[in-house]
Design a protein that fits this description.
The complex is a heterodimer of chains A (about 350) and B (about 300). Chain A is mostly helical and about 350 residues long. Helices cover about 65% and strands about 0% of the residues of chain A. In chain A, helix 2 packs across helix 3 and helix 3 packs antiparallel against helix 4. The chains are: A mainly alpha (about 350), B alpha+beta (about 300). The interface between A and B is large, with 117 and 118 residues.
Chain lengths: ~350, ~300
């Protein structure tokens, strides 16, 4: 124990020598202890009683995993609504505006509910921080939400159509931000499966959002109006599936978290539904109303399961120390140009 | 926060964390050097921290993990003493605790304890502080990182952002709590409670520059004595978090103590993420527009 005193000019007071004496337990002449044997396996690693190294997210899956989906649905629906209102597709414009307003209402409710102190949600508006995707997202939502609500309200009440159309256009533009920023939101963490995929997630998420928005439009729009939704749905599905593959390749051993258990099941079903939805949208949804509805339902459900699958995979990758340690060890080995091991005494 | 504000440096040099965020003429940066080679696992640091900071009880559990019944750092444990039991052919370690005939009790075999008091690292580049959307987390004039409990709304973003797993939510409260490096004590000229209570000086508090010099000397001494497995952890300003304000001398790999071997502040990649988010958003708008072009009205 010392008598050090902290002052604004630095430390003052007595700080006795702190060189602890080497105890009798250490034999100075006995040489180097040999490295421990590690359990052999494809990825040898040590842990502290198997405990996770990083703390898994405390976000609720239903609220935040669900928001990844509803945010994408809202954003893409606003884009489709803006396009539809300016190209004379009144039924699908109405449907997409209402979808967007409903989805963003659900989103905001979920986001506030997930806070540890919901009553303090306004504290989000104290600062603007580009270094925090959540702060950026809050400000995007603060701009987007009133426009989406105004556009839907004007549509429903039939009042102020010009202002309503302007609000719809603004919601469409900001909707692209709502649909994409959530990728940075989850990738800007230490969660191995999320951060490791930070290059692919933005594209995967807008693809998934496009699939959800187009799917909802296909469910509601008459055949005569559903051309754009079909095309956007197919494009979104292809982007989602393609970047999903790129993401798995990029993640290396962390991709295991995307294959195991609940996340693996969700993502497999999501891929199937997305592919079926895209196929139906491309081939049959232009001629048959039931086919269009089926395509829409498949695309929406596929997008939902993709988001919930990625959310769960991130949580799973955070709970297993292997996914934190092994990639960091591999990175260290690459940087040092050595084989597979870390610092002294770790080779096996 | 009595210091005035100046222009924030865009590219922090990582040497003076407080000056980098705009404090004019801040006091020297302080931190901890935790020398685990002389930790005896008494947990006085855990107790002193709880007492001083009024940190509530975090469950009276028998974990079965050696003498560790704390488990890890959490909202209700700001110091955590890790206990690692290793059967190693460790030269000079007394093997007499082993019973005769016990497996592995041959010549040269030994048993060793690793004990280490973990704490918030007060990173130079702190992910928790970067991602906090309310400004609740802030950098103090001492270069430490503190959560302001009157502002935190429990969004939980800092929890998975921390590469060390330090921050967590206090469930019955909803907010996030972590080590403040006894900000209140620093302001009153006192050293943090854990360092004050540590009976072996395993936890050393001081100016970071001095602590780094002291740690280098200690490491050289141990290496000279044949303890070649000794290594410093978190002392390097060139590492993925710009160096830790609280760094360690370890006797095995970091992951053995539950520490990440090569932590990187997640926001290092954020500019690249924003570029791709921008590209993806533009692509979505373009795809949306293209879906309507050429289809004519009503088709």
């Amino acid at each position: 124990m010392s008598d050090a005193e902290v002052t604004r000019e630095g430390l003052r007071g007595e700080r006795p020598g702190r060189e602890a004496r080497l105890g009798s337990g250490v034999d100075r002449d006995a040489g180097t202890p040999q490295p421990r044997r590690r359990k052999r396996g494809e990825h040898p690693f040590s842990s502290y009683y198997g405990q996770p190294i990083i703390n898994p997210p405390v976000w609720e899956e239903r609220e935040i995993g669900g928001y990844l989906f509803t945010g994408g649905l809202a954003g893409a629906s606003s884009i489709l609504a803006a396009g539809a209102q300016f190209t004379g597709r009144p039924v699908s414009a109405r449907a997409s505006k209402l979808t967007a307003a409903g989805a963003i209402a659900v989103s905001l409710t979920a986001l506030v509910k997930d806070l540890g102190r919901p009553a303090r949600f306004m504290n989000m508006l104290r600062v603007v921080k580009p270094s925090s995707p959540m702060s950026v997202g809050v400000w995007i939502l603060a701009g987007y939400t009133p426009l989406a609500f105004a556009s839907a309200a004007s549509e429903l009440a039939g009042i102020a159509p010009r202002a309503g159309r302007a609000a719809g256009l603004g919601a469409g533009l900001l909707g692209a931000g709502v649909a994409s920023y959530t990728a940075a939101l989850i990738a800007d963490t230490a969660v191995p499966a999320w951060h490791g995929a930070h290059r692919e997630l933005p594209f995967l998420f807008v693809g998934s959002a496009a699939g959800a928005g187009a799917g909802a439009a296909l469910l509601a729009a008459p055949l005569a109006e559903n051309g754009p939704a079909r095309r956007l749905g197919v494009a979104g599905a292809l982007v989602e599936l393609g970047f999903g593959q790129l993401m798995e390749r990029r993640l290396g051993m962390v991709a295991e978290a995307l294959h195991q258990g609940t996340p693996g099941r969700r993502l497999r079903i999501a891929r199937g539904l997305t592919a079926v939805g895209a196929g139906l949208a491309a081939l049959a949804a232009g001629r048959s109303r039931p086919a269009a509805a089926a395509a829409g339902a498949a695309l929406v459900t596929g997008s939902l399961l993709t988001r919930l699958g990625i959310f769960a995979a991130g949580v799973a990758s955070a709970q297993d120390p292997r996914f934190t340690v092994v990639p960091q060890r591999e990175r260290l080995a690459r940087e040092r140009g050595g084989p597979t091991a870390g610092p002294s005494g770790s080779s096996d | 926060m009595s210091a005035g504000w100046t222009e924030v440096k865009l590219v922090p040099d990582g040497q003076n964390a407080a000056a980098d965020v705009g404090y004019a003429d801040p006091p020297p940066r302080v931190g901890f050097f935790t020398d685990t080679s002389i930790c005896i696992g008494c947990k006085a640091c855990e107790v002193a921290c709880k007492e001083w900071n009024h940190v509530p009880e975090d469950g009276l559990n028998w974990l079965g993990d050696s003498f560790d019944n704390t488990g890890g750092l959490s909202a209700d444990s700001w110091r955590h003493v890790a206990f690692v039991e290793q059967r190693v052919p460790a030269a000079g370690h007394d093997a007499s605790v082993q019973r005769e005939g016990e497996e592995g009790a041959g010549a040269g075999d030994g048993f060793r304890w690793l004990m280490a008091s973990d704490v918030c690292k007060h990173c130079t580049h702190a992910a928790c502080l970067d991602v906090c959307p309310t400004g609740s987390l802030f950098r103090t004039e001492f270069g430490t990182v503190v959560v302001q409990a009157d502002i935190c709304n429990g969004c939980g973003y800092c929890v998975p952002a921390c590469p060390y797993g330090v921050l967590n939510k206090r469930e019955d409260d909803g907010r996030i709590f972590k080590c403040t490096l006894c900000y209140d004590r620093l302001g009153n000229g006192q050293e943090p409670a854990c360092a004050k209570a540590c009976p072996t000086e395993s936890i050393q508090f001081g100016e970071l520059e001095e602590l780094r010099t002291r740690a280098d000397g200690r490491l050289a001494l141990l290496h000279e004595a044949g303890v070649s497995e000794a290594r410093l952890y978190g002392h390097d300003p060139g590492d993925g978090v710009g160096g830790d304000g609280a760094f360690f001398l370890l006797l095995d790999e970091p992951e053995v103590y539950g520490l990440p071997p090569d932590p990187v502040v997640t926001t290092r990649d954020l500019p690249a993420m924003w570029r791709r988010v921008g590209l993806a958003a533009t692509g979505l708008l373009a795809a949306g527009a293209a879906a309507f072009i050429g289809s004519g009205r009503g088709r």
